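new request in #modeling-help
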Amino acid sequence: MPNGAQSVISGLVEAGVQVCFANPGTSELHLVTALDDAPRMRPVLCLFEGVATGAADGYGRMTGRPASTLLHLGPGLAGGLPNLHNARRAGTPVVNVVGDHALRHKRLDAPLESDITALARTVSAWTRRAYDAADLADDVADAVAAAAGPPGAVATLVVPADVAWADVEKHAGARRRAAVPHGFVSERALEEAAAVLRSGEPAALLLGGAATHGAGLRAAAQVAGATGARLLCETFPARLERGAGLPPVERLGYRTADAAGQLAGVRHLVLAGASVPVPFFAYPGQSGVVVPDGCEVRDLGGAGQDVGVALRELAAAVGGGTAAAVAREPGRPRVPGGDLTAETAAAVVGALLPQGAVVVDESNTSGLWLPDATAGAPPHDWLTLTGGALGQGLPLAVGAAVARPERPVVALVADGAAMYTLPALWTQAREGLDVTTVVFSNRAYAILGLEQAMMGASVGAAGRELFDLGRPELDFVALARGMGVPAGRATTVEGFASLLERGLAEPGPFLVECVVPPIA
Amino acid sequence: MPNGAQSVISGLVEAGVQVCFANPGTSELHLVTALDDAPRMRPVLCLFEGVATGAADGYGRMTGRPASTLLHLGPGLAGGLPNLHNARRAGTPVVNVVGDHALRHKRLDAPLESDITALARTVSAWTRRAYDAADLADDVADAVAAAAGPPGAVATLVVPADVAWADVEKHAGARRRAAVPHGFVSERALEEAAAVLRSGEPAALLLGGAATHGAGLRAAAQVAGATGARLLCETFPARLERGAGLPPVERLGYRTADAAGQLAGVRHLVLAGASVPVPFFAYPGQSGVVVPDGCEVRDLGGAGQDVGVALRELAAAVGGGTAAAVAREPGRPRVPGGDLTAETAAAVVGALLPQGAVVVDESNTSGLWLPDATAGAPPHDWLTLTGGALGQGLPLAVGAAVARPERPVVALVADGAAMYTLPALWTQAREGLDVTTVVFSNRAYAILGLEQAMMGASVGAAGRELFDLGRPELDFVALARGMGVPAGRATTVEGFASLLERGLAEPGPFLVECVVPPIA
C-alpha cells in the first residue's frame, strides 16, 4: 500500500515535474524515501535552501514547467524565501514541498515549530497544508496547476510528516481532471490594443513574462514591424531572448529618469505580460512617475490570460502576421586593449559569448556595459534579477543548466551578490553542470556607493565601511576550489579572455574571478 | 535638524544598544549615514543576512542585551529568519531594524515589495512599522524594551525610507519612560515549588533561559543542594555555564526515550526558564511523551517573570541560600591514541579547551562525545542549536566574540551546517575576532542517516544521495582561506591537537577541518 509521501512524489511525476531541488531534513525522510520509487524524478541536492529555490527559478524560467523544491519546515522555507521572492517577480512556476511536524506534534511547540503558511504566503500564489494522505495526490495536482499558470507562480504545499508516512488506502481525490485549461485571451483588450497601435499616434509595447522569448517575442516583433510601435521590455525581464537575428528589445532603464526618457512622447503604452512600470526605489524629492502624462496604458492580457497567444492574435489583427520582423544585425566587439574594467570585461564577454548561451545576469554595477556589448552576439537568453533579492545568480545557473544541459550557461555575478548563495557552486560540481561563472570582483557594494547620491544620503566614513568588501579581500578562486569547481583569477583583459575561453571550452563548471575597479 | 534615521540610531544607543550587525541596501542608506553620528554604535558588516541575525543571537546570549541588525526589506529579513528562529527559541534579545520602501512607494508594488510584517511576526514577539519620524525615538525605545524581556525576545521595527529621511521637528513621543520594570516573581509559584521540593518525593529542576548561567544557575544549584532535587536543563540550552567548579547540570537527551529515561521516577518537575519538555520530532508509532505519568509539572516563573530572581528567592525559601552547591570536579581527558574519529576528536577538545571559552556547538552527530569530554574542563559557556535551524554556529561565534573579546570562542560545527552561513568567516577575519572554528568533516548529513531508522523510513540508493556531502569533497581549508581565515586540515589525532592548539594560541580567527568518519 503506498503512503502519502509516495503519493506526493508520484503525483509530481504524473503532473510532469521531473526535477526536485532538495535540502531535506528529518521531517522529509519519507518523501526522500519515496524518491527511490520514482526514477523519472531527478533529485538534485543543494546545501542551502536558497540554492534549491533559486535553481527551481532558473529551471522554470528555461522550461516553462515547474521543478519542485524539498525543504525542511519553516526555517528551511525561510532560507529559500529570497530566491522565491525573485521567482514570484519573474512569474516562474515553482512547486515547493515543505515538510512539517506530524499534526499531533504541532501543539507541543517543539523547537522547529513555526508558522510555515505565513511564510509561504509572502511568496506563493497558492498555499495549502495537507491533512490527509488520501488527498495528497489531488493536493499535488492542484499545486502544479496553480504553479503552471498562466502566468507562472510559486505554489507551496506543506506536508506534515504523519500525512506523508500514513498509508493511502484509497485516493479520495482521485477525480480525473481535464487538462489544465489554457489561458484565455480578451477579445476586447485585443481590439483596443490593435486600434491604438494602428492610430498613428506614438505607441510602445512593453513586454514581460512570456512575451520576452519564443513565439510571444516573435509575434510582438511582428506587431512592431506592422505598426511602428516601439518594443520595450521590463527593466528586469525573467528571460529575454536576444542577439543576432532576433528582435531588438530595449530594456527600460533602472533609473527613473532614464525610464521616463525612454517613454517620453509615447501616447499609448500596451502592456504585454508586463506591469505598469514604476521606479525600483523612491528617492527624496524625486518624481516617482515613469509613464508620461497623457500616455494611455492598457493591458493586452491580464490575470489568467496567455500573453503569447494574445500577441499572436494581435499580430494577425494588425496585419503583421506575415510581416518580417526587425532583426538585430550580428556584430561583436573585439577583445579590447587597455586595463581590465567593467567596460572592457563586457567587451570580452561580447566577443566570446557562445551561440545558444543562457546568460544569468546578477552583475549589478559591473554589468553596466554588458547589454550593449552582447546585443549582436549569437542568439542567447538573458535572465535577470527580477525581484532585487541578492544571491540569485549562482543558483539560477544551476537550474538553467539542469533544464538545458545542451546549452552553455554563463553566470555573470557581482562579488557581493555571490556571497549569499555560494554553495550553488558545489551543486554545479556535483552535477557536472556546464556553467561558466564570472565573478566581477570590485570588492565593494558598489551599487550603494551609487545609490547614496540618488538617495541624498551623504554616507560618511563609518557608513562607507559597510560598502567595503575589500578588507579582507575575498579569494573567489579558493572559494570555488573549496566547492570542487576549478577556477582562475583575471587581472588583465587578455587574462580574462583566456580564462573565459577556457571555461566555455571545458565541460562542467568553471569560475573566473574578474578583478575590476568599481565603476565611477 | 535630525532626521528619522538619526533618531533610530541615537535611540538605539541611548537604550544601550552598542552593536549593529548590518547587511544594508538602498532603502537603509539614511540609517547607514546616521551611523557616522553615533561613535558609540559599532557597525559590523555581514555579507549575508543569516550572518547578521546569528551574530545578534550570539551577542545577546553572551551579554543579555540586544544588538541590532540592519536588514534590507522583506528579502533581507527573510534571509535572516532561520537564525532569528534560533534566537526566538533561545529567548535572546534582538532588535531588528528593517528598512522598507517609502510609504508612498508601497502602493506601486515595486520589485522589492513584499509583506515584511508577516515575515517578522513569525519570529518576533514585537513587530511595528513606523509611520512618522517624530515617533521613531519612541518606537526604538519600545523595541528595545520588548527585546530586553524577561524573557529576551526578537523585536522588529520596520522603517520606511521616507520616515528615515524625514526631518524630526519635534519628538512626538519624547515621553520620559521609567526604567524598564524588572520581571516580577510569583509568590504563589515560589511557595508551591518550595513545598514540593521539600516534600521528600523525587523532584527535578528543569533549567532553561537565564537559569542556565550566572546567578540563576548558582541559585538553582543551591536549591538542589538543599533539597536533593536533580538539576536538569533543556536539550538545547541557549547558554549553559559549565565545567570544573560549576554545578553539573544534565542536559535532557535528544531522543525521546533517553529524555524519558532521565525523568523516570520524577514526581515533581519544576520548570525554571524552561518549557515542558517535548520530543524534537514525532516518529511513527512512538510515544511522544517525555514527562512520566504521575509527574506533576509546575512553572517557577512564566511570562514576564525573572527566573534568576525567582531561583534566588527559592534558594532562600528552601534554606539553601548559604548551602554549598555541588561542584563538578576538574578533570580532562588526555589526548588519546588511535584514529581521528568523533570520539577521539572530542577528547582532544576536552584536553585543550581553554579557561573561559565560549563554545558554540553545532556539531550535531559528530558532537556526541563532546559534552562528556569537556564536563570537567575549566569553566566555559556552551551555546547550542536552540531552534534546530542549521547555519547557526559560524554566525553565533561572530556575535559571541564581539560581545566577549577577552574570551576565546570555540565554534564546533558540522560540515553540513557550516555551508548555510559560510560568510561569517569573512566577518571574523574583518573584525579580527578570536574564534577557533572546528569543522567536523564527515561528508554527510549524518543526522539523516541516523534519523531514518527512528523515522521508520528505509531510504534507498536514490534518497541516500541526498545525505552525501562527499561528491565532490568540500575543502574547508580553501573555503576559509577564501574568506581570509587561516586554516588547516587534520586527519590524525595528533594533527588535530596540534592545529587546535595553534588556533587557540593565535589571536584572530583560525579554522581546523577535522576529518572524521560519520558515527555508526
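bot summary: The first strand of chain B starts at residue 19 and ends at 22.
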